[in-house]
């Protein structure tokens, strides 16, 4: 038997110790780098792209280089401090095992920037990862919220409201073309009730005057089912609800004041034989209050239900008219009914209101509430229901997140604006979820009662009112949800311009707002007092406030002011536009504009807290390193395959294969696994076909890696090309301003230096000139004959004093105030006293 067949599959080194392997390396001549390469291969788990299982805990060779560190003395000889820190780290570490992994996964679900504040401030990469994770999760939440909100609405709502409103509001009831919008007295209401109201409620014939079938009765426009029967309700005030002035007491006997709940007339009147003539409370009617043009009206009153047919309803209306159901005390008449369109699954709850003020006349108003009360009918509705379930899970998730953040930060949590926005969105969403559940139950109950008695009035008013509030609350939640996006993109300095501008100018705006409000409300009160009796836009304070805002936006009725008073109207308009619009409003814009310019300049000079691009560059580099490492391993195996056949018999046995790969630093497990993959017949040798198969697969994987790397490089070049387009106009302007300021500053400094040099040069020339003059004077005095020593000393002292005075005058002329002052002090301190001692010095 040959030596090749006698060797075990793992070779003789299957049980070698590390010392034995080191000795073998020395004998074979394998370098230390090969052993490190072998360690990297061991920890990488082999070639994962070759189909080998890689342990989850293993690191790649590049990753080991990333996390590699140099051991310090604390690692080799731990001190008490390092031991304490390690003990704390062990205590803070999650428990090992499946339970620890599960708890760690649960904890990572709520890993936010605020919960990981200490860690994220020290680790930029962790901060970026946490921000990206929060942003991605929040985008999913936002998408679900958009599906919910727009799943509840459609363009059909507008057209449905338009059709129903035109039917009841725009059809005339007399030859003068009066409609419900222009009702002006008690008689007009009866004409409307007998005409457009009856014609709109009961469609009993086709366009060819043929009667509709029994099944088609009760459909408006042949499509909209009238639910139950309509109802008419009125509210009255009793006689004596106001007081007649004594001078008119003998002329005016009755007095019906404006509507007030305390002045309601609840007595039975007229025929006194039904609900139309007897008062019922809001509890009996299960009604709710309503805000009209003049005031708020309670849910009780005198009620008359109509019928399911036009003839019976006309008879009821005529009976009410003949018996004077509407009287001087009538203050409001409500006409309520509800229709349902099965084609679009929408309800339209309609209320037509005519108010009769104490002044006489009538004011008409209306309410058309198109809502979707039956939520789940079509496939799209059930998809929305699935999104609603996901939305509830998101709300629970965010509630837990906010509770954890409040628990950690305590009162400090509520000092941040975005945290308040989070709580607001969660509260609104929770209320909407609760109402949605209540609405579903309430609608089912009401429809069951309606089906049991189809001639009853179904009061959807209360439910429709709260459905509209629900829609408004959802709209507010969507608004704040979109605003909250700024919370997650604030890491970019460009995205912080708005918040920085508003926060920086908040103080100036607050002070300016006080001044603006004083002027604005002064003009509002002036308008109410001057024009309130004639012009509707100034009939009360709030109308005046909104009218003045409309003037700022360019929507105003100047003719009404001018028609009221040729002088006061234009004067009021001119003063308001001048002081509020031209001065105060432009000051407001100037404050914001200046602050924005400062913020732009500061942002242009500062660097981001962290750059998201750096994070992606690092990820790109890691990816490229991993690809290069895999390609290097493939190249090593290709070289080993080419040189493993030492005896040139076209067959590579396991020992030859193992020897070649051992030289390149591979572990026994990797060598055996790779060999076994291509040793198809299991004879512990690789024949020519098996070697060819290995070479083909290795070359294919190498080409695949090259293609992947080229694709990544191509994407990077495209991104870099986009960034190399140039700077923006704003960036260029900022740089230009900085260069101009720098040139101006440097020019000023250079001019000052030149002036100082000129003055120093002049002083130096003067000093040399006086020194020469002094020498000549001293020589002349010394050589003078006929003078004794005392006279020479006096003359010399006088000449020196004169020269010093001239010197002081020149210094004052050629130097600045500060420098000349210091020069004079130095000169004075160096001036000799008028004594013979000076002469002796000279």
From TrEMBL:
This is Polycystin-2 isoform X3. Residues 688-725 form a coiled coil. The chain crosses the membrane at residues 135-160, 382-400, 420-441, 470-489, 509-535, 571-592. Residues 1-94, 785-842 are annotated as: Disordered. GO terms for molecular function: calcium channel activity; calcium ion binding. Residues 24-41, 790-809 have a biased composition (Basic and acidic residues). Residues 815-835 have a biased composition (Low complexity). InterPro entries: EF-hand-dom_pair, EF_hand_dom, PKD1_2_channel, PKD_2, Polycystin, Polycystin_dom. Residues 632-667, 668-701 form the EF-hand domain. GO terms for biological process: detection of mechanical stimulus. Belongs to the polycystin family. It is a multi-pass membrane protein. It is found in: Cell membrane; Cell projection, Cilium; Cytoplasmic vesicle. Ca(2+) binds at residues 679, 681, 683, 690. GO terms for cellular component: cilium; cytoplasmic vesicle; plasma membrane. Disulfide bonds join 242-255. Keywords: Calcium, Calcium channel, Calcium transport, Cell membrane, Cell projection, Coiled coil, Cytoplasmic vesicle, Disulfide bond, Glycoprotein, Ion channel, Ion transport, Membrane, Metal-binding, Transmembrane, Transmembrane helix, Transport.
């Amino acid at each position: 038997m040959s030596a090749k067949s006698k060797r075990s599959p793992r070779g003789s080194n299957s049980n070698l110790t590390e010392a034995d392997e080191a000795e073998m390396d020395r004998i074979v001549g394998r370098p230390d780098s090969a052993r490190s390469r072998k360690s990297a291969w061991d920890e990488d788990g082999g070639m994962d792209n070759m189909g080998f299982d890689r342990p989850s805990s293993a690191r790649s060779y590049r990753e080991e280089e990333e996390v590699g560190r140099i051991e310090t003395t604390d690692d080799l000889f731990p001190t008490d401090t390092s031991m304490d820190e390690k003990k704390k780290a062990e205590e803070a570490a999650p428990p090992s095992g499946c339970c620890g992994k599960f708890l760690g996964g649960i904890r990572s679900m709520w890993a936010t920037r605020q919960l990981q504040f200490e860690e994220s401030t020290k680790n930029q990469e962790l901060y970026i990862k946490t921000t990206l994770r929060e942003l991605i999760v929040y985008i999913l939440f936002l998408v679900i919220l958009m599906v919910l909100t727009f799943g509840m609405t459609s363009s059909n709502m507008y057209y449905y409201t338009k059709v129903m409103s035109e039917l009841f509001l725009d059809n005339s009831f007399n030859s003068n073309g009066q409609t419900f919008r222009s009702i002006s007295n008690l008689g007009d209401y009866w004409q409307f009730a007998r005409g457009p109201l009856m014609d709109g409620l009961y469609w009993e014939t086709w366009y060819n005057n043929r009667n509709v079938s029994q099944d088609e009765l009760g459909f408006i426009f042949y499509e909209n089912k009238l639910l139950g029967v309509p109802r008419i309700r009125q509210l009255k005030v009793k006689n004596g609800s106001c007081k007649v002035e004594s001078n008119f007491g003998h002329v005016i006997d009755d007095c019906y004041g404006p509507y007030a709940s305390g002045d309601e007339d609840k007595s039975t009147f007229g025929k006194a034989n039904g609900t139309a003539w007897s008062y019922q409370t809001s509890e009996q009617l299960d009604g709710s209050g309503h805000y009209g043009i003049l005031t708020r009206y309670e849910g009780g009153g005198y009620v008359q239900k109509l019928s399911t047919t036009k003839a019976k309803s006309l008879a009821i209306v005529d009976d009410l008219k003949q018996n004077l159901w509407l009287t001087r005390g009538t203050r409001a008449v409500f006409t309520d009914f509800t229709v349902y369109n099965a084609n679009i699954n929408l309800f339209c709850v309609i209320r037509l209101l005519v108010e009769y003020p104490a002044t006489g006349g009538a004011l008409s108003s209306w309410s058309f509430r198109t809502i979707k009360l039956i939520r789940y009918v079509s496939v799209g509705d059930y998809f929305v229901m699935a999104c609603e379930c996901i939305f509830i899970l998101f709300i629970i998730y965010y509630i837990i997140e906010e509770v954890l953040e409040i628990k950690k930060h305590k009162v400090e949590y509520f000092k941040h604006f975005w945290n308040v926005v989070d709580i607001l969105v969660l509260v609104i969403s929770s209320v909407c979820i609760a109402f949605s559940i209540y609405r579903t139950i309430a609608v089912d109950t009401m429809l069951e009662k309606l089906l049991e008695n189809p001639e009853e009035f179904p009061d959807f008013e209360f439910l429709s009112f709260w459905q509209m509030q629900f829609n408004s609350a959802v709209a507010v939640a969507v608004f704040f949800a979109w605003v909250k996006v700024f919370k997650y993109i604030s890491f970019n300095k460009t995205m912080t311009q708005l918040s920085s501008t508003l926060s920086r100018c908040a103080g100036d705006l607050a002070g300016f707002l006080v001044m603006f409000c004083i002027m604005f409300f002064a003009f509002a009160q002036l308008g109410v007092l001057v024009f309130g009796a004639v012009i509707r836009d100034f009939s009360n304070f709030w109308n005046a406030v909104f009218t003045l805002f409309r003037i700022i936006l360019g929507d105003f009725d100047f003719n009404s002011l001018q028609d009221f008073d040729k002088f006061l109207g234009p004067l009021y308009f001119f003063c308001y536009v001048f002081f509020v619009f031209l001065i105060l409003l432009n000051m407001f814009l100037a404050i914001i504009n200046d602050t924005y310019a400062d913020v732009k300049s500061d942002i242009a000079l500062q660097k981001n807290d962290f750059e998201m691009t750096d994070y992606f560059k690092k990820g790109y580099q890691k990816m490229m390193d991993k690809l290069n490492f895999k390609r290097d391993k493939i190249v090593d195996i290709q070289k080993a395959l080419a040189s493993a056949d030492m005896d040139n018999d076209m067959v590579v046995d396991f020992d030859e294969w193992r020897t070649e790969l051992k030289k390149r630093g591979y572990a026994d497990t990797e060598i055996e696994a790779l060999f076994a993959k291509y040793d198809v017949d299991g004879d512990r040798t690789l024949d020519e076909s098996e070697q060819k198969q290995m070479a083909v697969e290795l070359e294919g994987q190498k080409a695949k890696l090259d293609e992947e790397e080229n694709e990544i490089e191509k994407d990077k070049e495209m991104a870099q090309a986009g960034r190399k387009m140039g700077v923006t106009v704003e960036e260029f302007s900022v740089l230009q301003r900085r260069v101009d300021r720098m040139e101006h500053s440097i020019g000023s400094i250079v001019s000052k230096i030149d002036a100082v040099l000129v003055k120093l040069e002049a002083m130096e020339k003067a000093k040399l000139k006086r020194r020469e003059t002094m020498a000549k004077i001293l020589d002349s005095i010394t050589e003078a004959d006929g003078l004794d020593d005392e006279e020479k000393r006096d003359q010399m002292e006088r000449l020196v004093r004169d020269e010093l005075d001239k010197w002081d005058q020149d210094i004052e002329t050629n130097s600045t105030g500060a420098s000349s002052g210091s020069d004079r002090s130095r000169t004075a301190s160096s001036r000799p006293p008028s004594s013979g001692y000076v002469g002796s010095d000279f």
